[in-house]
Amino acid sequence: MSKVLIITTSLRAKSNSDILADHVAKGARDAGHEVEIISLKGKKIGFCKGCLACQNTMECVIKDDAIEIAEKVKEAETIVFATPIYYYEMSGQMKTLLDRLNPLYPSDYKFRSIYMLSTAAEDEDYVCEKAVSGLNGWVDCFEKSEFKGTLFCGGITDMGEAAGKEEKLKAAYDFGRALA
Fold first, then answer.
1. With contact defined as beta carbons under 8 Å apart, do 78 and 115 qualify?
2. How many Å apart are CA 57 and CA 106, to the nearest integer?
3. d(Cα 6, Cα 18) in Å, to the nearest integer?
4. 3-state secondary structure string across the chain
5. What is the pTM of this model?
6. What gap in Å lies between CA 135 and CA 168, rounded to an integer?
7. What is the pLDDT of residues 120-166, one digit of tens each?
8. Which residue windows are coiled coil (predicted)?
9. Cα–Cα distance measured from residue 171 to residue 177, given in angstroms and rounded to the nearest whole number
């Protein structure tokens, strides 16, 4: 079994993506994986400056919480990014984190399987397509990794609403059990 890292990117209290990520984690644990969840709530993650110093040093010049998160990403074999969908895209804090993971590009990273869990008020299948495309762009830069799948849980609006959506909770649990 593999070492799974779930990164929840919502900053909202009683986040629906956090609730569903917990069920993904339970499913993954029940399947025998070692699971860690990191939330971006309360983390300080600055914008990438584009200096590319990290390509030589494999370290970012910005000293904030992204450094510790990047180290955990580097050591995980499977990564699940959980994000709310805002304006048909991933959360801004998720995109900022992806940019800040640039020091991993020249490193001997272990992650091979990348997944996305997303939530939105709208329920149409196309709602998460741009977010999935954005994450795929990041994955494409890491040749040893592969985007393995996505779970979109639409039709969830209010804070904490996902906790009462048994069908969505079961889908998240099953998604976690199926992680490779």
1. yes
2. 9
3. 10
4. CCEEEEEECCCCCCCHHHHHHHHHHHHHHHCCCEEEEEECCCCCCCCCCCCCCHHHHCCCCCCCCHHHHHHHHHHCCEEEEEEECECCECCHHHHHHHHHCHHHCCCCCCCCEEEEEEEECCCCHHHHHHHHHHHHHHHHCCCCCEEEEEEEEECCCCCCHHHHCHHHHHHHHHHHHCCC
5. 0.97
6. 22
7. 999 999 999 999 999 999 999 999 999 999 999 999 999 999 999 99
8. none
9. 10
Q: What does the chain come to in residues?
A: 180
d(CA 167, CA 170): 5
Domains of the chain: 3-177 (3.40.50.360)
For tokens 């001997």, the residue is 108
CB proximity list for 77: less than 8 A, separation 6 or greater: 2, 3, 4, 110, 111, 112, 113
